[in-house]
Hydroxyacylglutathione hydrolase (Thermogutta terrifontis), 217 residues
Amino acid sequence: MEQRDPKVVTIVSAMFGQNCYVVYRDNRSDCIIIDPGLDWGKIIRKVTQLDLTPAAILITHGHADHIAGVEAVKQRWPEAEIVVGRRDAQKLTDPTLNLSADFGFPLTTPPADRLVEDGRFLDYAGMKILVREVPGHSEGHVIYLLNDATPPLAFVGDVIFAGSVGRTDFPGGDFELLAEGIRSKIYTLPPETQLWAGHGPPTTVGHEKTHNPFVRG
C-alpha cells in the first residue's frame, strides 16, 4: 500500500493558545497526538471525528499547558503510550515542577510509558520519528522529527516559534543552552523543514535561520 505523507491537524487550547497536533496518514486508522493541552474535550472530539485511534501521546516537555489533556486522552485510549524526554518525566506527576501549582490549578498526569533521549527512533502510526533533545526552555525538552515526510516535519514544542524562541525564565531555563540547541539541532535541518511550534503558526527552518531576531543561523 502506498505510504502517503502525514497530515497534521492543529487543535488550539484556550488560555495559553497552546497547539496540540494530531498527526496521521490518511490510509491508516492510527495516529499520534503531540502535547494534548487544556481543551482535551476538543482534542478527543476531533480524533473521534477523524475515526482515528492514538498509538502514542508524544510530549515535548512537561509544562502544564502541554500536558493538561494527557490524562483524559489516556483514559479514552488506554493503549496509547505516553512518551516524554527522560529529564522531564518528573514534571508529569509533580504540580510544582510542571508549573500548574503556580497558576492555581495543580494537575498531574499518569506516569510515562516510555522515556526517550537524544537520537532515539520511535515507530508509531506508520511513521518513523527521530527524537532530539533541545534543553533551555525546559531541561528535558525534546523535539520530534519526521524526516521521511516531504517536506520534513519537526514538532518543536516551545524551543522556537515563528519569529521568537521559548522563554528561559522558568526553572531549568537557560538561554545560551537553548540558542546552542536551536543552532545545532534545528538550523542544521533542511531549510524547507516545517517547524510546528507549541504556540503560534508554523514556520520553516530556512525562514527562522535568516529572520529570527533572537537566534540567527
